[in-house]
Amino acid sequence: MWGITRYQWLVLFAAWLGWGFDVFDGLLFNYVAPNCIPTLLHLPLGSAAARSATLFWTGTLTSLLLVGWALGGILFGFICDRFGRMRTLLFTMVLYALGTAACAAATNLTMLAVFRLVASLGIGGEWAAGASMVAEVMPEKRRVEGGALLYTAAPFGLFLATGLNYLVAGVWFANDAAQSWRYVFLCGLLPAVVAFTVRWFIHEPERWQSVKERSQARLRQIFTPELRRRTLLGTMTTIIALAGWWSCNAFIPVIATGLARGEAALRGFDQAATLGLVEQWKFTATLCFNLGGLIGTLLTIPLAKRLGRRPMFAWYFGASAAAIFATFGLDMPPAARLYMFFLIGAPVFGVFGAFPFYLTELFPTRLRATGAGFCYNIGRVLAAVGPFIVGAAAARGTAMQTIFYVGFAPLLGLLLVPLIIETRGGALAD
After folding, report:
1. Does residue 424 belong to any structural domain of this protein?
2. Average pLDDT across the chain, whole number
């Protein structure tokens, strides 16, 4: 199919699993935060103090995750170029699996933050290894398809996290909200099992093998005159996308929880019925966001190949701003607002389908993981400000009013579009 061999599909599938579980482990906290944070702070679930603390600490810990993600992406990008794509992929999968599972044993927020930081290092490092491996193994004419298909693993990871959280917290342990979040975190061990299975079937890409003897990757090399502009523009493009994605996605469970509790109060629901509605609405909002993201990810293929990289980014940034302003600025029933997350997901989530192929096109093989890993992850340090500000502001008001202003981030991205480097029609440089 598409001129892709069975082994090339296998490599894509291995990287796809790595990235899907990467997202899965990275976002489990956002689902359990409304129960986890009040429990660790010894606050009554559903109280005003619990809601305020959840908003603030969701933003704070999400920002911490992004900082660790950035550090892991830069560190393991360098390691990936020096020691190999496959080794780095498997090691980072095990690292984020163990870090996430350890969160189940947390007895206070400090322990939770430390374990999240460990997991975030592996989460950040996995992307550069998987994206580089796919770019180097796929046929030149199918690099865009390979990169976009790789990112469809992100909706898979979100679907899996949503489904497992719903089953664990909403069905199996629905009457034990103070402890159900621990079982959700334990599900983070799944990627470690996958990693040990994958290692028997794939090997290092021949393209990397051909340069490994002369590969002495250094971070400063991506700032040489020939690569500096590519590095800076690649980084700025991801910062815009990351600020929008994390500021919106990190607060989907929090917004859905607030909407559900308001609806439950109007209907006169008791505590058990309210918790059930909360889990249902979190599932619905996240499902809509994921479905939109999946479609948006696949749209990067025709947009990138027919229009080019620059017009593609212009379309996604413009649509992101419009969707955010409409969802959080227009007056509509609470249930209808849940489905609007589909319109947000298509551009805000979908634009990330372009980064696996676009960022790897900017750098030669000997610096591919280092450069792509830096661009994709250093932006998280700056993007980390977004969830922190949203969380702190939302704790003093309403999350929806705060996230409305996130729509100005992709508007700034439109100003960047004319400077974006066009790579359509070019081959990977060795």
Report:
1. no
2. 81
- For 429, phi then psi, to 5°, come to -90, 140
- The pair phi, psi for residue 46, each rounded to 5°, is 85, -5
Number of domains in the chain: 1
In a domain, 428, yes or no: no
Q: How far apart are CA 13 and CA 7, in angstroms?
A: 10
Distance (Å, rounded) from C-alpha 166 to C-alpha 113?
A: 23
Angle between helices 6-40 and 153-165 (to 10 degrees): 40
For 66, other C-beta atoms within 10 Å of its C-beta total 28
pLDDT digits (tens, 9 = 90+) for 373-410: 888 877 777 666 656 666 666 556 566 677 787 888 89
The whole-model pTM stands at 0.75
Domain containing residue 227: CATH number:
1.20.1250.20
427 located within any domain? no
pLDDT tens-place string over residues 112-129: 888 988 888 888 888 778
136 in Cβ contact with 85 (< 8 Å): yes
Tens digits of per-residue pLDDT, 132-152?
788 778 887 887 888 788 888
Structural domain of residue 285, as residue ranges? Answer: 6-210+218-419
Half-sphere exposure of 147 (CA within 13 A, CB side): 29
pLDDT at 323 over 80: yes
Q: Are 80 and 212 in contact (CB under 8 A)?
A: no
CA atoms of 298 and 315, how far apart (whole Å) = 14
Q: Nearest CA to 279 among 43, 23, 45, 42?
A: 45
Count CA atoms within 13 Å of residue 23 on its CB side.
Answer: 25
Exposed, middle or buried, 237 (CB in 10 Å: 0-12/13-18/19+)?
Answer: buried
In sequence order, what DSSP letters do the residues of 83-107 get, joined into one string? H-HHHHHHHHHHHHHHHHHHGGG-S
Task: Note whether residue 292 is domain-resident.
Answer: yes
The one-character DSSP state at 351 is G
